[in-house]
């Protein structure tokens, strides 16, 4: 093998190693920076509507940040929360709005869960007909009454989420507890394993050369 070919191969591997190492950080910084810039532009637009032109960058972001804090404090007051819930119930009468708003609200609720609530989701294994197993998460201890009525009476049924690799989506199945194998594995670690199809786990176990 010519020396030039070996040199090119080493440079290629080194370049890929550097790119893959810095890419997650670069994408994360870019995403958060884009959010900050968007919120700053939104706040500046609001200030311009009331006739005040900001003299420096970042004022719009601070305004939106303070408004979010005020909203959070307001929703801790029972009368305001009750009024908002009444308004929300009225808006939910519109079918299309109910579908879109419900999806966004569920995502917001999921993002609002702290680590302790996420780790309470039990990681389980479910056997397949070919003798293999798939990893899933019990998402709730209680089933909706409509589903319990439709399901066979025998068995303790629970919803289990089977996450799809490299995708946000997953498949929710209704499974008997007796058919599940409980695993002592945190939700965060198991989710990382499933989202990357085990690639992150394999990479972490590799010894540096």
Explain what you see.
With 209 residues, the chain is α+β, with helices and mostly antiparallel strands. The longest helix is centred in the first third of the chain and has 47 residues, at 3-49. The protein has helices at residues 3-49, 59-74, 78-91, 95-112, 115-119, 145-150, 187-195, 199-205, and strands at residues 122-127, 133-138, 157-163, 170-176, 180-183. It has a 5-stranded antiparallel sheet with strand order 4-3-2-1-5. The protein has 8 helices and 5 strands, in the order H-H-H-H-H-E-E-H-E-E-E-H-H. The mean pLDDT is 79. Among the domains are: 75-112, no CATH class; 115-205, SH3 type barrels (Roll). Strand 3 (157-163) and strand 4 form a beta hairpin.
How do the helices and strands follow one another from N- to C-terminus?
Answer: HHHHHEEHEEEHH
Helical segment count = 8
Low-pLDDT parts are none
Q: What is the CATH-assigned architecture of the domain at 115-205?
A: Roll
Indicate the structural class.
alpha+beta
**Arithmetic mean of pLDDT:** 79
* Separation of the first and last Cα atoms: 23 Å
Give the helix level as a range of percent: 55-70%
Query: How many strand segments?
Result: 5
Strand order of the main beta sheet, please?
4-3-2-1-5
Radius of gyration: 25 Å
Q: Give the biggest beta sheet.
A: 5 strands, antiparallel
Q: CATH class of the domain at 115-205, anyone? A: Mainly Beta
Shape: flat
Using the coordinates shown, work out and report the CATH topology of the domain at 115-205.
SH3 type barrels
Fraction in beta strands: 5-15%
